[in-house]
Automatic annotation (TrEMBL):
Keywords: Chaperone, Endoplasmic reticulum, Signal, Wnt signaling pathway. Residues 23-32 have a biased composition (Acidic residues). Residues 23-45, 143-188 are annotated as: Disordered. It comes from Oceanites oceanicus (Wilson's storm petrel). One of its GO terms (molecular function) is low-density lipoprotein particle receptor binding. This is LRP chaperone MESD. Gene3D superfamilies: 3.30.70.260, 6.10.250.640. The lineage of its organism: Eukaryota, Metazoa, Chordata, Craniata, Vertebrata. The gene is Mesd.
Amino acid sequence: PAKKKDIRDYNDADMARLLEQWEKDDDIEEGDLPEHKRPPAPIDFSKIDPGKPESILKLTKKGKTLMMFVTVSGNPTEKETEEITSLWQGSLFNANYDVQRFIVGSNRAILMLRDGSYAWEIKDFLINQERCADVTLEGQVYPGKGAEESEKVKNKTKPEKAKKKKDGDKKSNSIKEDNRATKQREDL
């Protein structure tokens, strides 16, 4: 049995032990747990469309925080970027999407979503905005309506790779590939 100690004589270690005793029997609801301690949401495989890899990502990101980068077209100042992205955030808020916005450069912003399953719907909204140059989501770059024509053409399709010949001819030099989402995918 511990000695009875006056509360005025408690030091930091005593207070920490007292807090642990209070929290030990306390039932914490699942929603109050930090995201990394919450159990993952069950995935309903019947909703997955094998032709659309985005459907798998939507289900795996449900209930998780997700970040996307947005680039404003032209050469805006940081204040202009703030105003434009604020309008986008307001439009998304009016459509019941919980989005937080952080300006990270003169023409770039990060949008933080509490529920990552809505990210692709938000991406579709953003790339249809006149001043949106591109949206980066899960490593994929999606060109927006405001992207320069040279960027759109460059990222539209990737060149076909030359087929290897049996006699050992050298492979022709191919154009450097980037991670743009609008490129056609090769069959595996």
